[in-house]
Specification:
Elements lengths: L12 H4 L24 H4 L2 E4 L8 H14 L19 E3 L24 H10 L6 H31 L8 E4 L21 H4 L3 E4 L18 H8 L14 H5 L9 E5 L17 H9 L7 E5 L3 E6 L5 E4 L6
Parallel strand pairs: 1-2
Antiparallel strand pairs: 3-4, 5-6, 6-7, 7-8
Helix pairs in contact: 3-5
Length: 330
Protein backbone atom coordinates (compact mmCIF):
# COMPACT_ATOMS: atom_id res chain seq x y z
CA UNK A 1 0.00 0.00 0.00
CA UNK A 2 1.72 3.17 -1.16
CA UNK A 3 2.31 5.82 1.46
CA UNK A 4 2.18 3.55 4.50
CA UNK A 5 4.89 2.11 6.75
CA UNK A 6 6.98 -0.37 4.81
CA UNK A 7 5.59 0.61 1.40
CA UNK A 8 7.66 -0.38 -1.62
CA UNK A 9 6.10 1.59 -4.47
CA UNK A 10 5.09 5.18 -5.10
CA UNK A 11 1.41 5.94 -5.58
CA UNK A 12 0.24 4.77 -9.00
CA UNK A 13 3.25 2.58 -9.83
CA UNK A 14 1.37 -0.70 -9.33
CA UNK A 15 -1.49 0.41 -11.56
CA UNK A 16 0.93 1.67 -14.22
CA UNK A 17 2.83 -1.63 -14.19
CA UNK A 18 -0.15 -3.95 -14.71
CA UNK A 19 -2.95 -4.51 -17.20
CA UNK A 20 -5.38 -5.14 -14.35
CA UNK A 21 -5.05 -4.18 -10.69
CA UNK A 22 -7.96 -4.11 -8.29
CA UNK A 23 -11.06 -6.08 -7.42
CA UNK A 24 -13.98 -7.71 -9.14
CA UNK A 25 -15.42 -8.32 -5.66
CA UNK A 26 -14.39 -6.48 -2.51
CA UNK A 27 -13.90 -8.06 0.94
CA UNK A 28 -17.00 -8.04 3.12
CA UNK A 29 -15.27 -9.17 6.32
CA UNK A 30 -11.78 -9.11 7.76
CA UNK A 31 -11.17 -10.81 11.12
CA UNK A 32 -13.78 -11.53 13.77
CA UNK A 33 -11.73 -9.59 16.32
CA UNK A 34 -10.32 -10.58 19.72
CA UNK A 35 -12.37 -13.15 21.62
CA UNK A 36 -10.65 -12.70 25.00
CA UNK A 37 -10.10 -9.85 27.44
CA UNK A 38 -6.80 -8.02 27.12
CA UNK A 39 -5.48 -9.54 30.36
CA UNK A 40 -6.04 -13.09 29.06
CA UNK A 41 -2.89 -14.79 27.67
CA UNK A 42 -4.78 -15.96 24.56
CA UNK A 43 -5.39 -12.30 23.70
CA UNK A 44 -1.65 -11.64 23.47
CA UNK A 45 -1.28 -14.92 21.56
CA UNK A 46 -3.57 -13.52 18.82
CA UNK A 47 -5.88 -16.51 19.21
CA UNK A 48 -9.45 -16.03 17.96
CA UNK A 49 -10.37 -19.61 17.10
CA UNK A 50 -13.35 -21.00 15.22
CA UNK A 51 -15.26 -18.37 13.28
CA UNK A 52 -18.42 -20.30 12.52
CA UNK A 53 -19.70 -22.53 9.75
CA UNK A 54 -20.50 -19.95 7.06
CA UNK A 55 -17.94 -19.02 4.37
CA UNK A 56 -15.99 -15.84 5.04
CA UNK A 57 -15.61 -13.37 2.19
CA UNK A 58 -12.49 -11.78 3.64
CA UNK A 59 -9.45 -10.27 1.91
CA UNK A 60 -8.08 -13.63 0.77
CA UNK A 61 -11.37 -14.88 -0.61
CA UNK A 62 -11.91 -11.58 -2.44
CA UNK A 63 -8.42 -11.84 -3.95
CA UNK A 64 -9.02 -15.43 -5.05
CA UNK A 65 -12.44 -14.56 -6.48
CA UNK A 66 -10.91 -11.67 -8.41
CA UNK A 67 -8.17 -13.95 -9.76
CA UNK A 68 -10.72 -16.58 -10.79
CA UNK A 69 -12.81 -13.92 -12.54
CA UNK A 70 -9.74 -12.70 -14.41
CA UNK A 71 -8.75 -16.22 -15.46
CA UNK A 72 -12.29 -16.82 -16.69
CA UNK A 73 -11.73 -14.07 -19.29
CA UNK A 74 -9.15 -16.41 -20.91
CA UNK A 75 -6.44 -13.74 -21.10
CA UNK A 76 -4.46 -15.45 -23.86
CA UNK A 77 -0.85 -14.76 -24.72
CA UNK A 78 1.90 -14.55 -22.08
CA UNK A 79 0.56 -13.48 -18.70
CA UNK A 80 1.60 -13.20 -15.06
CA UNK A 81 -0.95 -13.37 -12.25
CA UNK A 82 0.10 -12.40 -8.72
CA UNK A 83 -2.29 -13.60 -5.99
CA UNK A 84 -1.26 -12.23 -2.55
CA UNK A 85 -2.91 -14.02 0.37
CA UNK A 86 -2.78 -13.04 4.05
CA UNK A 87 -3.43 -16.48 5.57
CA UNK A 88 -2.00 -18.17 7.53
CA UNK A 89 -0.86 -14.89 9.10
CA UNK A 90 -2.31 -14.29 12.53
CA UNK A 91 -4.73 -13.69 14.15
CA UNK A 92 -5.31 -17.41 14.51
CA UNK A 93 -8.86 -17.89 13.26
CA UNK A 94 -10.62 -19.91 10.57
CA UNK A 95 -14.12 -21.10 9.71
CA UNK A 96 -15.41 -24.61 9.15
CA UNK A 97 -14.70 -27.02 7.60
CA UNK A 98 -11.06 -25.99 7.90
CA UNK A 99 -11.10 -25.45 11.65
CA UNK A 100 -12.03 -29.09 12.28
CA UNK A 101 -9.66 -30.47 9.66
CA UNK A 102 -7.14 -31.24 12.40
CA UNK A 103 -7.54 -32.53 15.95
CA UNK A 104 -5.95 -30.46 18.71
CA UNK A 105 -4.91 -33.60 20.62
CA UNK A 106 -2.81 -34.69 17.63
CA UNK A 107 -0.77 -31.49 17.53
CA UNK A 108 2.89 -31.77 18.45
CA UNK A 109 3.90 -29.38 21.23
CA UNK A 110 6.31 -26.58 20.28
CA UNK A 111 9.98 -26.40 21.17
CA UNK A 112 11.26 -25.24 24.54
CA UNK A 113 12.76 -21.86 25.31
CA UNK A 114 16.33 -22.59 24.21
CA UNK A 115 19.55 -21.28 25.74
CA UNK A 116 21.44 -18.06 25.19
CA UNK A 117 18.80 -16.64 22.89
CA UNK A 118 18.52 -12.90 22.14
CA UNK A 119 16.90 -10.79 24.84
CA UNK A 120 13.66 -10.20 22.92
CA UNK A 121 12.70 -13.86 23.48
CA UNK A 122 12.38 -13.45 27.24
CA UNK A 123 10.99 -9.92 26.96
CA UNK A 124 8.17 -11.06 24.66
CA UNK A 125 7.35 -14.06 26.82
CA UNK A 126 7.11 -11.81 29.87
CA UNK A 127 5.06 -9.11 28.13
CA UNK A 128 2.65 -11.64 26.62
CA UNK A 129 2.39 -13.78 29.78
CA UNK A 130 3.24 -16.89 27.76
CA UNK A 131 3.85 -18.84 30.97
CA UNK A 132 0.07 -18.79 31.54
CA UNK A 133 -0.58 -20.78 28.36
CA UNK A 134 -0.94 -24.51 28.97
CA UNK A 135 -0.31 -27.42 26.63
CA UNK A 136 -3.96 -27.48 25.55
CA UNK A 137 -3.76 -23.78 24.65
CA UNK A 138 -0.73 -24.32 22.44
CA UNK A 139 -2.30 -27.33 20.75
CA UNK A 140 -5.44 -25.30 20.02
CA UNK A 141 -3.38 -22.46 18.54
CA UNK A 142 -1.43 -24.88 16.34
CA UNK A 143 -4.58 -26.71 15.27
CA UNK A 144 -6.18 -23.44 14.19
CA UNK A 145 -3.04 -22.42 12.29
CA UNK A 146 -3.07 -25.73 10.42
CA UNK A 147 -6.72 -25.08 9.57
CA UNK A 148 -5.71 -21.73 8.10
CA UNK A 149 -3.11 -23.51 5.97
CA UNK A 150 -5.80 -25.96 4.82
CA UNK A 151 -7.88 -22.99 3.66
CA UNK A 152 -4.96 -21.63 1.64
CA UNK A 153 -4.45 -25.08 0.13
CA UNK A 154 -8.10 -25.16 -0.92
CA UNK A 155 -7.90 -21.69 -2.47
CA UNK A 156 -4.71 -22.46 -4.40
CA UNK A 157 -6.33 -25.67 -5.62
CA UNK A 158 -9.23 -23.65 -7.03
CA UNK A 159 -6.81 -21.37 -8.84
CA UNK A 160 -4.88 -24.28 -10.35
CA UNK A 161 -8.16 -25.87 -11.44
CA UNK A 162 -9.15 -22.60 -13.13
CA UNK A 163 -5.89 -22.57 -15.10
CA UNK A 164 -6.64 -26.13 -16.16
CA UNK A 165 -10.18 -25.13 -17.17
CA UNK A 166 -8.87 -22.61 -19.71
CA UNK A 167 -6.48 -25.21 -21.12
CA UNK A 168 -3.22 -23.60 -20.00
CA UNK A 169 -1.92 -26.03 -17.38
CA UNK A 170 0.87 -27.35 -19.61
CA UNK A 171 2.09 -23.86 -20.51
CA UNK A 172 1.88 -22.32 -17.03
CA UNK A 173 4.47 -22.16 -14.26
CA UNK A 174 3.05 -21.95 -10.73
CA UNK A 175 5.07 -20.50 -7.84
CA UNK A 176 4.03 -20.71 -4.19
CA UNK A 177 6.09 -18.79 -1.63
CA UNK A 178 5.78 -16.66 1.50
CA UNK A 179 7.56 -13.73 3.12
CA UNK A 180 8.16 -15.17 6.59
CA UNK A 181 7.38 -18.05 8.91
CA UNK A 182 5.72 -18.26 12.32
CA UNK A 183 7.00 -19.01 15.83
CA UNK A 184 3.78 -20.93 16.56
CA UNK A 185 4.81 -21.58 20.16
CA UNK A 186 8.50 -22.26 19.56
CA UNK A 187 10.48 -20.65 22.41
CA UNK A 188 7.13 -19.67 23.97
CA UNK A 189 6.48 -17.13 21.21
CA UNK A 190 3.92 -16.45 18.50
CA UNK A 191 4.02 -14.38 15.31
CA UNK A 192 7.46 -12.99 14.47
CA UNK A 193 9.94 -10.25 15.46
CA UNK A 194 11.79 -7.85 13.14
CA UNK A 195 15.21 -9.10 14.29
CA UNK A 196 14.08 -12.69 14.80
CA UNK A 197 16.33 -14.97 12.76
CA UNK A 198 15.24 -18.36 14.07
CA UNK A 199 14.82 -21.12 11.52
CA UNK A 200 11.04 -21.33 12.01
CA UNK A 201 10.82 -17.77 10.66
CA UNK A 202 13.29 -18.07 7.78
CA UNK A 203 12.98 -21.59 6.40
CA UNK A 204 9.77 -21.36 4.38
CA UNK A 205 8.02 -23.25 1.58
CA UNK A 206 9.04 -22.57 -2.01
CA UNK A 207 7.03 -24.79 -4.33
CA UNK A 208 7.21 -24.46 -8.09
CA UNK A 209 6.08 -26.24 -11.23
CA UNK A 210 7.46 -25.75 -14.71
CA UNK A 211 5.47 -26.12 -17.93
CA UNK A 212 5.48 -29.77 -18.93
CA UNK A 213 7.11 -30.92 -15.70
CA UNK A 214 5.97 -34.46 -14.92
CA UNK A 215 7.97 -35.61 -11.88
CA UNK A 216 8.24 -34.04 -8.43
CA UNK A 217 11.59 -33.59 -6.69
CA UNK A 218 12.88 -31.89 -3.55
CA UNK A 219 15.86 -29.56 -3.60
CA UNK A 220 17.64 -29.59 -0.24
CA UNK A 221 20.06 -26.74 -0.92
CA UNK A 222 19.94 -23.05 -0.06
CA UNK A 223 17.91 -20.49 -1.99
CA UNK A 224 16.85 -16.93 -1.20
CA UNK A 225 13.85 -14.78 -2.06
CA UNK A 226 16.06 -12.62 -4.30
CA UNK A 227 16.46 -15.68 -6.53
CA UNK A 228 12.85 -15.38 -7.66
CA UNK A 229 13.57 -12.29 -9.77
CA UNK A 230 16.14 -13.77 -12.18
CA UNK A 231 14.26 -17.06 -12.25
CA UNK A 232 10.97 -15.52 -13.34
CA UNK A 233 12.76 -13.30 -15.85
CA UNK A 234 14.48 -16.38 -17.29
CA UNK A 235 11.11 -18.10 -17.63
CA UNK A 236 9.98 -15.20 -19.78
CA UNK A 237 13.24 -15.02 -21.76
CA UNK A 238 13.79 -11.53 -20.37
CA UNK A 239 17.25 -10.12 -19.69
CA UNK A 240 17.43 -8.16 -16.40
CA UNK A 241 18.05 -4.47 -16.98
CA UNK A 242 19.44 -3.65 -13.54
CA UNK A 243 21.95 -4.94 -11.01
CA UNK A 244 20.62 -7.72 -8.81
CA UNK A 245 22.00 -10.43 -6.55
CA UNK A 246 19.64 -13.31 -7.26
CA UNK A 247 20.46 -16.61 -8.94
CA UNK A 248 18.45 -18.45 -11.54
CA UNK A 249 16.71 -21.46 -9.97
CA UNK A 250 15.68 -23.12 -13.23
CA UNK A 251 18.71 -25.45 -13.33
CA UNK A 252 17.86 -26.69 -9.81
CA UNK A 253 14.23 -27.22 -10.81
CA UNK A 254 15.35 -29.40 -13.71
CA UNK A 255 18.01 -31.22 -11.67
CA UNK A 256 17.51 -31.27 -7.88
CA UNK A 257 21.20 -32.03 -7.30
CA UNK A 258 22.20 -28.62 -8.70
CA UNK A 259 23.85 -26.37 -6.11
CA UNK A 260 22.43 -22.85 -6.21
CA UNK A 261 24.17 -21.43 -3.13
CA UNK A 262 26.50 -22.73 -0.44
CA UNK A 263 24.82 -20.49 2.16
CA UNK A 264 21.75 -18.32 2.70
CA UNK A 265 21.76 -14.83 4.19
CA UNK A 266 18.99 -12.98 5.99
CA UNK A 267 18.85 -9.71 7.90
CA UNK A 268 16.39 -7.74 9.95
CA UNK A 269 15.90 -5.31 12.80
CA UNK A 270 16.60 -1.61 13.15
CA UNK A 271 19.03 0.87 14.64
CA UNK A 272 17.97 2.56 17.87
CA UNK A 273 17.27 5.75 15.92
CA UNK A 274 14.85 4.10 13.49
CA UNK A 275 11.78 4.65 15.68
CA UNK A 276 9.69 5.63 12.65
CA UNK A 277 10.04 2.04 11.43
CA UNK A 278 8.97 0.36 14.68
CA UNK A 279 5.62 -1.39 14.87
CA UNK A 280 2.88 0.75 16.36
CA UNK A 281 1.67 -0.18 19.88
CA UNK A 282 -2.01 -0.63 19.04
CA UNK A 283 -4.56 -3.40 19.61
CA UNK A 284 -3.15 -6.88 19.91
CA UNK A 285 0.23 -5.49 18.83
CA UNK A 286 0.35 -3.11 21.80
CA UNK A 287 2.86 -5.06 23.89
CA UNK A 288 5.08 -5.76 20.90
CA UNK A 289 5.11 -2.13 19.84
CA UNK A 290 5.77 -0.90 23.37
CA UNK A 291 8.81 -3.17 23.70
CA UNK A 292 10.29 -1.76 20.50
CA UNK A 293 9.57 1.81 21.59
CA UNK A 294 10.82 1.45 25.17
CA UNK A 295 13.73 -0.96 24.59
CA UNK A 296 14.89 -0.38 20.99
CA UNK A 297 18.00 -2.53 21.37
CA UNK A 298 15.68 -5.55 21.61
CA UNK A 299 14.93 -5.03 17.94
CA UNK A 300 18.47 -4.14 16.91
CA UNK A 301 19.91 -4.87 13.48
CA UNK A 302 20.97 -8.47 12.93
CA UNK A 303 22.21 -10.65 10.08
CA UNK A 304 22.50 -14.43 9.76
CA UNK A 305 24.47 -16.75 7.50
CA UNK A 306 23.28 -20.35 7.25
CA UNK A 307 25.51 -23.07 5.84
CA UNK A 308 25.08 -26.83 5.76
CA UNK A 309 26.83 -27.29 9.12
CA UNK A 310 26.76 -23.92 10.86
CA UNK A 311 24.53 -20.92 11.49
CA UNK A 312 26.14 -17.64 12.55
CA UNK A 313 24.10 -14.64 13.75
CA UNK A 314 25.68 -11.22 14.18
CA UNK A 315 23.70 -8.73 16.29
CA UNK A 316 24.47 -5.02 16.45
CA UNK A 317 23.59 -4.56 20.14
CA UNK A 318 23.70 -8.08 21.56
CA UNK A 319 25.88 -11.15 21.78
CA UNK A 320 26.46 -13.02 18.52
CA UNK A 321 25.20 -16.59 18.13
CA UNK A 322 26.80 -19.68 16.61
CA UNK A 323 24.89 -22.93 16.11
CA UNK A 324 26.03 -26.38 15.06
CA UNK A 325 23.17 -27.24 12.71
CA UNK A 326 23.89 -30.96 12.92
CA UNK A 327 23.56 -30.96 16.71
CA UNK A 328 21.07 -28.12 17.20
CA UNK A 329 19.17 -27.33 13.98
CA UNK A 330 17.18 -24.58 15.72
Amino acid sequence: MAGTRGDMFATGVTEASTHFCGWTARPKQMTMGPQFAEDHPLYAAFYHGRRGTEPWFDFDEAVVTTALDWLATKPGGPWVLFVPLIFPHLPFEVEEPFYSRHCAADMKLPRGFGRRKPDFHAALRHANQSHRLGEDDWREIIRTYYGMIARVDDQVGRLVAAVDAIGETHSTSVWFFTDHGEYLGDFGLVEKWPSGLDECLLRNPLIATLPGQSAAAQHDGFVEMVDLLPTLLALGDIEPAHTHFGRNLLPALKDASTVVRDAAMSEGGFRVGDAHLFEQPTGEYRRKGELQRDQPKLVGKAIVRREADWTYVHRLYEQDELYDRRQDPR
